[in-house]
Design a protein that fits this description.
This protein folds into two domains: about 1-60, no CATH class; about 70-190, Vaccinia Virus protein VP39 (Rossmann fold). Helix 2 (about 70-95) packs across helix 3 (about 115-120). It contains six helices and eight strands; from the N terminus they run E-E-E-H-H-E-H-E-H-E-H-E-E-H. By secondary structure, the protein is of the alpha/beta class. The chain is about 35% helix and about 20% strand. Strand 7 and strand 8 (about 175) form a beta hairpin. It has a five-stranded mixed sheet, sandwiched between helices. It has helices spanning about 55-60, 70-95, 115-120, 130-140, 155-160, 185-190; strands spanning about 25-30, 35-40, 45, 105, 125-130, 145-150, 165-170, 175. The chain is globular and about 40 Å long. Bound molecules: zinc ion. Zinc ion (ZN) binds near residues 19, 20, 39, 41 and 42. Zinc ion (ZN) binds near residues 42 and 44.
Length: about 190
């Protein structure tokens, strides 16, 4: 899941941009041993090479999320997240000019605070989250008002479904768009 497989010579194949399919990637900077490259076409930044599944599992452990070990802190954080979600949902509503409706996908939904707020406004929500621990918490918050997929964006694309809104609070990326095979082009023109 999420890894670029090795070819017969043991070298990784050329990396293409996950969003737009572009092959022109420029080195931006490094964080320790990790190189960050940027797509010349759409601006998506990513680590190259990508972390292994083992590294991701270790990063997104149950301790990854803010205040994860502190119940008072969790309450405080939940309030902040709800306010942030409302802020973005208000922006989205102002953009479309009418009460929100339709299907929303959040990439990297974490513990589901944004999804829950979006569902409360009547959107049919889908979240995708790499951390299984966080995905379970998100699913408990959303319950029958939506669903949470534990995995990455490739699994959502493979479903071939369409969404009216695609967003990620991680990247502050909000597009009113359709997610399908043309996800990349949509994001570019978004
Ligand atoms: Zn790109």
């Amino acid at each position: 899941m999420g890894r670029d497989s090795l070819n017969q010579t043991g070298a990784r194949p050329p990396i293409v941009c996950l969003v737009c399919g572009g092959r022109k990637l420029h080195y931006d900077f490094s964080i320790g041993p990790h190189r960050v490259e940027e797509c010349a076409t759409c601006g998506l930044m990513r680590l190259n090479p990508q972390p292994t599944d083992e590294e991701l599992a270790s990063i997104y452990s149950s301790a990854y999320f803010v205040f994860s070990g502190n119940s008072d802190g969790q309450l405080h954080a939940a309030g902040l997240k709800a306010s942030t979600a409302d802020y973005y949902l208000n922006l989205l509503e102002a953009y479309v000019g009418c009460p929100l409706s339709g299907r929303l996908l959040e990439v990297g939904c974490g513990q589901g605070d944004f999804l829950a707020q979006a569902a409360a406004r009547g959107l049919s929500v889908t979240g995708v989250e790499y951390s299984s621990h966080a995905a379970q918490i998100a699913a408990d918050k959303v319950r029958a008002r939506g669903r949470v997929i534990c995995g990455d964006i490739k699994q959502v694309i493979a479903l071939g479904e369409q969404f009216d809104f695609v967003g990620s609070l991680v990247t502050r990326l909000v597009h009113r768009h359709v997610l399908s095979a043309s996800f990349a082009a949509d994001c570019q023109s978004g």
